[in-house]
Each structure stands twice: as C-alpha cells, then as structure tokens.
Amino acid sequence: MYCVLLASYSVNAADRQLFPLLAHDVRLQYGFSLSNIGLLSTIFTLGLAVAGLPTGFLLSHFPRKIVLLLGIGIFSAGTALTVLATGFSDMVIYLAATGIGEAMQLTVMIAIAANYFVRYRAAAIGSMNVFFGIGAFTGPILGSILLTSYRSWRAPMIVFGLFGGVMIALIALTVRPWFSETHRAADAKADVRGAPALWNRNTVILTVLSVIGGLNLFGFTGMYPTFLREGLHYSPKQAGIVASFYGVGALVSIAGGWLGDRSSPRIILSAAFFCMAVLGYLCFHGSGGLVPQAILTCFYGAIGSGTIYVNLAGYHVKAVRSSLSSRASGMFVTSFYMSAAAAGYLMGGIASHAGWAMAGEIQISLLATIAGGLAFALRPHQMAL
C-alpha cells in the first residue's frame, strides 16, 4: 500500500517537472516575457505554501485517504485544464491550483509515513523524495516524447492529467484505512531536547535558509530547461534528457537524510550550500555539451533535493520539542515554498535584463554562498535528539 502511495507521489513529481519543459513552447504561443513564464513555472509553490493550514483543518475532520484523493484530483485537474487557458491570468490560476493539490498530497503522505513507520521516520520520508526523483527523471523524458510526437505542448498536459485519474482509482481500490489512518506515533519516545517555542535561534536561521533554498532550487528547476532551450538552443528532447537528471540526483535522498541525522547541521548545510554555489556557477558558465550539463544537473539534484531539502525539513522539526513538530514542519513548508513561488519570476527577470550567466551568479551562487555562511550560526546542541 505504501508503494502505491509512493507511485502516486512520483506522478506528482513528474507533473511538477512538466511545465518548465514546455515553458519555451508556451512562451512562443502566448508571447509571455521571461519573467512571466518564470512565474508560471513556479507559481504552483504558492499553492503549496498557502494550503498547509486548510489541509490541517481537513485532516481534523476527514480521513487522510479522502484528503489524499482530493489533493490528487485537484492537481491533476489543474494540469489538464491549463490547456484551456486563454492568457496569463487564467493560466496562473490553473497552475497555482496544482500546488494546492500537491500540498494536500504531500501533507498526507508525511503524516502516514511518520505515523506508521515510527522507528524509521527519516528513511520513510527519504523514500518519498526517492520516488520524487523517479518522477522527476521520467516526467521530462515522457513529456519531451509527447511534445515531439504531437507537436503541441497541450498533449503532455492532458496525458499527465489523466495519469492522476489512474492513481486515484488505484489508491481507492488498494489502500486500506488501517494503514492510511494509523496513529502509531503516539507510542514513539518523546524528544528530550529542542526549543520550547518556535521563536528560537535555530528555527529563525533555518527559516532564512529555507527561503534561500526555495529561491535556489526552484529558480533552477523552473527556469533551467528554458535556459537550455533558449540559451544553449537544445531541442525539446535534449532539454528533457538533461532536466531529467535532476531526478536522478534526488535518488540519494535516503542517504542524504541518513547523513544529516548523524552529522552536525552546521557541517551538512554549510557544505551543501557551498557546493550548490559552485554547481550553479558551472551550470551557467561551463560547457554547453549535453553530457556535462546532464552531470551537473544530476549533482545539483543530489545536493539540492537529496541533501538540502531533506535536511532542512528534518532540522526544522528537531529544532523544537516534539509537541511543536507539526508547527515546525508547517514553518518549513511555508518559508520554503513561499519564496519558491517567486523564484522563477526573479530568475527570468534577471536573465532578461542581464543574461543567463548573471542570473545564475546572483540567484544561485551568491545566495547559496550567503546561506552556507549563515549555517555556521546554528547551535546543534540545542536541537532534539
């Protein structure tokens, strides 16, 4: 049953990576600016950021399985309805709605993993990011094949919307309430350290790092395919292959979380952000060859999604007492995805005025360097065991 849920999360991930691949074709048809197409590529994260509290309300009144199915239905419908957009304003609404559905699915998935696999929470949540990597790898490849075959950006959006309907039927038939509604976390041993309130040094620093992380990761995933198409003049198939390697890098998420659990947050986050600064520079200044770009994208996925994302989420929870873990997780989701909503718009704006190289230097390399230095200010001894 958990594998079925993980498969549905792969569909979510593939759906998330699809529009950036198609952004160039959408831009040509509608005449959108780089800033506007960047906003469209990452606007779903706004839905992710604002849907946390409503999802919590729904979970307190309805079974997790129902909320999960509703979330999958919303993001799948938003994906398919995007093909009906007549301009920028309604396309923004459809794509933002996909983020609302994804937030509902993500919240329920974390709740199920954390409550059922009590002794292996980090591994269970890490497995979610592994399947995110699988979806992020297969999504651009399948999307590029559909785009090339049908010569229309609408075809991949419709097909991926239908995938969601298939997963709804599969979950409804196979996932049982005794699994999805379990509350075994009550048996877990409480953390013996951590701040008694959200307003503490570690949480504040981690929130700033999450804001920067959102700008970095979604500036890259939202606009890098457009850079490949317009800056390096890749074909849709070539851009899809390179973009898919971000998902390959994310497959190290379980190892990244395991390393974060056993190492100092200062060391892990500082090293990861400094590596991201270097990778960001190389991606926009290095060789334009397909193999070097694929390798760099793979490493970017391993550092960004497989290490920074996983451990920022984990350290937010560890920074406070166990009774505040849900609020700390909400703080991470809000700060990370709220900044991510503007990441594509900012990246596209810088690129349109100063070029792609400068956009990479400022939004990725410079911000990552600042974050790497800021991570040294964390106090690991005040975090929960």
Description:
This protein has 385 residues and is an all-alpha fold. Helix content is 81%, strand content 0%. It has one domain (2-183, 190-382): Growth Hormone, Chain: A (Up-down Bundle). The two termini are 30 Å apart.
Keywords:
mainly alpha; 16 helices; 385 residues; Growth Hormone, Chain: A
Categorize the overall geometry. Answer: globular
Structural class: mainly alpha
Low-confidence stretches: none
Radius of gyration: 20 Å
Extended strand count: 0
The CATH architecture can be given as: Up-down Bundle
The CATH C-level class name: Mainly Alpha
Give a quick summary of the entry:
With 385 residues, the protein is an all-alpha fold.
